[in-house]
Structure formats: structure tokens, C-alpha cells
Design a protein that fits this description.
Elements lengths: L5 E5 L9 H18 L3 E4 L12 H11 L4 E4 L2 E2 L5 H14 L4 E6 L1 H10 L13 E3 L2 E3 L6 H4 L2 H10 L9 H13 L3 E2 L2 E2 L10 E7 L4 H8 L4 E3 L8 H11 L11 E10 L2 H7 L3 H9 L18 H12 L2 E4 H15 L3 E5 L5 H15 L3
Parallel strand pairs: 1-2, 1-14, 2-3, 3-5, 4-5, 5-10, 10-11, 11-12, 12-13, 12-14
Antiparallel strand pairs: 6-7, 8-9
Helix pairs in contact: 1-2, 1-14, 2-3, 3-7, 4-6, 8-9, 11-12, 13-14
Length: 372
């Protein structure tokens, strides 16, 4: 198949023994590296109260955009439940005012979903997958249930800190509509027109991120927006999310046809054995997230204890769907993922304890993929 564009998703991870300042400097260096290698976009995730430095995407995006020249920079994704549409558009509009035409405003629903779960108001979602299966060569693992994690006292406390009572979670569809209206200059409340300054008519692309056959996929499709499916976080439901988006798609001024990006976790090294060693602390890191305490500093494989059988079961789906190996084998896996999902673009995240290993991972993949 013809090589499709590759982009980079960065979590700005804090490595064991490192600092938030180190992580942010590394994100800027990685963005510059990605630009020089020919990656199309550089996206930053939003996480709170954990050992990653991407808690404020607009701030990090402004730093990265100022330090690069051509690569598109964006959020993957702003959790709209923790921000108002006005604050989001004004923040991205401010960056766009000085760096026009380079920003991707990704919007995610996980802030709303977590608030619903901790409040006990989230409707149950029956699993679409009950056991492992292969779809056109792509592993769709049995699902991981986040019910215990979402129902933990710590998660409830974090939700309160991010959206204190009596604040109300906005409806996701309405929030996306408000973002689009603010950018278009058609935003009204109570019959009054309001302009986001900066923000109105900013050259910002709006994206929707989703993980399952749910509201995010439907909202993206019905509004004719590009959609990102998170195979790297929810491999059991990402293909369902893509299908739901395509089923709901309605052509718009933005897109005449659906546009799908699929994410993947990768670790690329000069040989398979080195890649496996670099990726050996990924499971313990994911376990720290799923155990309910949030991501710890990214572990050093040299001093990381292996997981117990019970702990391994908690992270099994993530570990088995990580693409680990030399550049040809990882590229082959990504091509299979792209073919199975019909992706128009892939976005890869590569996390290792050593930053030079992350740079090398992206460099090897870029060369194998044939990026300019």
C-alpha cells in the first residue's frame, strides 16, 4: 500500500529520575526532530495529577509551535469537560494569531466521561469484544474494564478538583458546536453575539478524538469533522469507533469524505532484542495508571521489577498491541493496522525511559516509512 502520513503523539512523560522541566524540554526537542524527519503533525496529550508534563496543552503547544517552523501542532486532545469552549478557542486563537494555519484543536470527551462515571451517571456500555480476535491481521484484544479505576476515591477527588461543584459538565455535542461557532464567528448566548478575541476566524482545524462506538464518533461524523481513534489506549474498541464514525458521517464544508487517524504505541530500535528491552518497563507504567494511582515516572528497565501474573493481566491488552521491534517489523505492523482500519493517517507515540532512545525510535521509523 502507498505510505500514508505519519504523525507523532507526545505525552511529555517524566522519566524516573527526571523533572517536569526535563520532560517539557524533551517535548520541544522531539517536535523539532519530528519536523526534520518529515512527520506531518506533533500532538500533545492532556493529563492531570500524574507524572507527565502535558497538563496544559495550549501552553505546551505554544512552546512547541514557537520552536518549530512547519509541522502542524495540536492537542490530542483537550478534555472539553475541564475547559469551557470559550477558554479553549481563545487559547488556540492566541497561538494562531502569531503562528497562523498550523494548529490542530483536538477535542476529547474523557473529561465528561470520567465525571459521569465518578458521579454514577454514566450509562453502562456492553462490551463489543468478549475475547481476542484478529481483524485483517490486527489484534483486537478482549476488553479491559476501567470500572474499578473510574470508581476509585482518588478518581472522584481528581474530578472534583478539576471541575468543583456546583459546576456542570457540558454536553459534549453542544460543547463541540460552541467551539465551531466561536471559530466561525456565529456564537450566541441569550440572543447576544459574542466574538472570541483572539479566536474568531482563526485558522484552526477541529478534530474529535474517540475510543469506542459512542458519542464522540457520532458527533465527529454528523458534523463532518476528522476523527482520531485511539488504538493505543483502547485497542478492543478502536475499530468499532472507526466504523461508527463512518456510519454517521455527513459531508461538510470541512470534509467531503471521512478522514480517519488511528493511534499506535511503538518502540523501534536497531534490532528486536534492543526494542524489547527498551519496552520492558511499559507494562509496569501502564499498570500504575490502571491501578488507579495514575502514571508514575516512566520506569528505568534496568531497575524495574517484572509484573506478577495478576498485574500482567491488567495490562495485557496494551502490552500485546504495542508495536515493538526493528523498523521493518514495526512498519509492517503499522501498515496492517492502517489497512484494517482504512486509516488516512497514523499517529504514533513512542515512550522510553531514555530520551535518546525515543529520538532514535522516531528516526528509524521515519526512514523505514519513507518520510521526507
Amino acid at each position: 500500500m502507498t505510505a500514508i502520513p505519519l504523525s507523532v503523539l507526545d505525552l511529555s512523560p517524566i522519566s524516573q529520575g527526571g523533572t517536569p522541566a526535563d520532560a517539557l524540554r524533551n517535548s520541544v526537542r522531539l517536535a523539532q526532530h519530528a519536523e526534520s524527519l518529515g512527520y506531518k503533525r506533533f500532538w500533545l496529550a492532556e493529563h492531570h495529577f500524574v507524572a507527565v508534563a502535558s497538563s496544559s496543552p495550549p501552553t505546551a503547544i505554544a512552546l512547541v509551535t514557537a520552536a518549530t517552523d512547519r509541522i502542524r501542532v495540536g492537542a490530542a486532545a483537550v478534555q472539553i469537560g475541564f475547559h469551557t469552549p470559550v477558554s479553549v478557542v481563545e487559547a488556540f486563537g492566541t497561538i494562531d494569531a502569531l503562528h497562523p494555519g498550523r494548529l490542530d484543536l483536538g477535542i476529547g470527551r474523557s473529561g465528561q466521561r470520567r465525571a459521569e462515571a465518578t458521579a454514577g451517571s454514566a450509562p453502562p456500555r456492553p462490551p463489543t469484544v468478549t475475547d481476542d480476535r484478529l481483524v485483517d491481521g490486527v489484534l483486537v484484544p478482549r476488553p479491559f474494564s476501567a470500572a474499578k479505576q473510574l470508581g476509585s476515591p482518588r478518581m472522584a477527588a481528581a474530578a472534583t478538583a478539576l471541575l468543583p461543584p456546583p459546576a456542570q459538565q457540558p454536553d459534549f455535542a453542544g460543547a463541540v458546536d460552541d467551539v465551531l461557532a466561536l471559530l466561525a464567528g456565529t456564537f450566541e448566548v441569550g440572543g447576544e453575539h459574542f466574538s472570541a478575541v483572539p479566536g474568531e476566524h482563526a485558522e484552526v482545524e477541529v478534530w474529535v478524538f474517540g475510543s469506542s462506538r459512542g458519542q464522540s464518533a457520532e458527533v465527529a461524523g454528523r458534523r463532518g469533522l476528522p476523527f482520531v481513534a485511539s488504538y493505543h489506549i483502547t485497542p478492543s474498541t478502536a475499530l468499532d469507533a472507526v466504523a461508527a464514525y463512518r456510519e454517521a458521517f455527513v459531508p461538510s464544508e470541512t470534509l467531503a469524505e471521512p478522514y480517519v487517524v488511528v493511534s499506535a504505541d511503538v518502540v523501534v530500535a536497531d534490532d528486536d532484542a534492543t526494542a524489547r528491552e527498551l519496552a520492558s518497563s511499559f507494562g509496569p507504567w501502564v499498570h500504575s495508571i490502571r491501578a488507579g494511582g495514575g502514571a508514575v515516572p516512566y520506569p528505568d528497565p534496568a531497575v524495574t521489577e517484572p509484573l506478577t501474573e495478576a498485574q500482567q493481566a491488567v495490562v495485557d491488552d496494551r502490552v500485546r498491541t504495542q508495536f515493538v521491534g526493528d523498523a521493518p517489523s514495526v512498519a509492517d505492523g503499522l501498515r496492517t493496522l492502517a489497512a484494517a482500519t482504512g486509516a488516512d493517517e497514523l499517529v504514533v507515540t513512542s515512550v522510553t525511559h531514555g530520551f535518546d532512545d525515543r529520538l532514535r525510535s522516531h528516526e528509524l521509523l521515519a526512514k523505514e516509512w519513507g518520510l521526507a
